[in-house]
Amino acid sequence: MRRMCLSTLVLCAFLAHPAQAQIGKNVPIKAGTPEDKALAEINATSDAAQKVALMEQFVADFGNSDMVIVGYDLLVNYYLNAKNYDKAFEYGDKLFAADPDNFANGVNMVRAAQEKGDLGKLFDYGEKTGNVVARYRAQGPPEGTSAEDWAQQKARTLSDIKDNLTYVEQSLFSAAYKTADPQARPVLLTRFATAFPESNYALPAMEVAATSYQLAQNYPKMLEVANKILARDMNNLAMLILLSDYFSEKGEQLDKAEGYAKKAVELVGSAKKPEGVTDEQFQQQLALQKGLQGRHAAAQARPIHVRAEPVPHGLRLAESKAHGGGPRGAHRSRFDQ
Q1: Alpha-carbon dihedral of residues 318, 324, 328, 330, nearest 10 degrees?
Q2: Spatial separation of the C-alpha atoms in residues 151 and 228, rounded to whole Å
Q3: Are 167 and 276 contained in the same domain?
Q4: How close are the terminal C-alpha atoms of the chain, in Å?
Q5: Is there a domain that residue 242 lies in?
Q6: Residue 12 pLDDT more than 60?
Q7: With contact defined as beta carbons under 8 Å apart, do 199 and 189 qualify?
Q8: Model pTM?
Q9: Structural domain total, the chain
């Protein structure tokens, strides 16, 4: 008896992605069954119109079982490769209705939205795909499977989908970052970071969102995002400087401003030259340290009611350039090139 996994079937018929996604229902196909014969006929047909007709007939014939997942998946891949994105979305939605945790379908929908240039659908499907992965990560072992075996199986599955998951993350992060609308940009960046909290791009996205809100003078949202970042990473140099700068300029919560600035000085003072950072960039980092130290001395010499001098904007820029190779405070030099 031959058993064929749905992902294997689709890869043989319409190769869309190199990695085999294993999240979602597994639909085995027994050799010699009507379903197997129908699929063999679909694969053997070269005429496009006839192939579509056979796929639709497959869905009609087996629509009352999980085999409909196979039919919808074939139709999604066919229309995606034909660049008929509206039809791909149509059958992708039907596939999600039949199999809500179908990771491969999420990747295909993100690809379709990206190729079509539909930002709204890109984020809708991207968030849905992120939720699929989150549910899988939180899922306990199936009945009859030990916790140890399940942990190993889950690790293998997450490794199998890594390339496709990275593709989805990169697609959303890049689209959000390149958004020209200054109001929409930080909203999309925070949506991405919320949908993919485990992503290597999540923290940079939040950093860019915070500075975007700052530039838009939406200070309540800036503070909200910056504080979330510090809750996750209390040594985030970019946010320490941003908040110290903000409170100093406003003449509010000066003790907190001084605390943030002192912490930033400590981090910069103990920092070693990062790999890939030039001597010139590292000297800019040292200049940042001196500027912050001078700021502390001036702040401590003033009465508490006197407004502290802000950290110059150029100092923030020097700081971000100084960390061009690292994940913290580097969003300007990493992405504005």
Answers
A1: 70
A2: 30
A3: no
A4: 57
A5: no
A6: no
A7: no
A8: 0.74
A9: 2
Buried b (16+ CB within 10 A) or exposed e, 7-33: bebbbebbebbebebbbbeebebeeee
Token pair recorded at residue 321: 């350039």
Query: How far, in Å, CA of 224 to CA of 247, rounded?
Result: 14
- pLDDT exceeds 60 at position 315: no
Contacts of 106 (CB under 8 A, 6+ apart): 96, 125, 126, 128, 129, 132, 168
Please tell me the chain's helix, strand, coil percentages from 3-state DSSP, rounded to the nearest 5. Answer: 70, 0, 30
pLDDT tens string 120-178: 999 999 999 999 999 999 999 989 999 999 999 999 999 999 999 999 999 999 999 99
Domain containing 76 equals 1-178
In-domain check, residue 205: no
Residue 320 lies in a domain: yes
221: Cβ contacts below 8 Å, ≥ 6 apart: 186, 213
Residue with tokens 């390339």: 163
* The pLDDT of residue 293: 45
Residue 247: CB atoms within 10 A of its CB come to 22
* pLDDT tens digits, one per residue of 169-209: 999 999 999 999 999 999 999 999 999 999 999 999 999 99
What type of residue is 308?
A: A
Q: Which two tokens stand for residue 140?
A: 């306990």
**Domain of residue 44, CATH code:** 1.25.40
Coil, strand or helix: which one is 274? coil
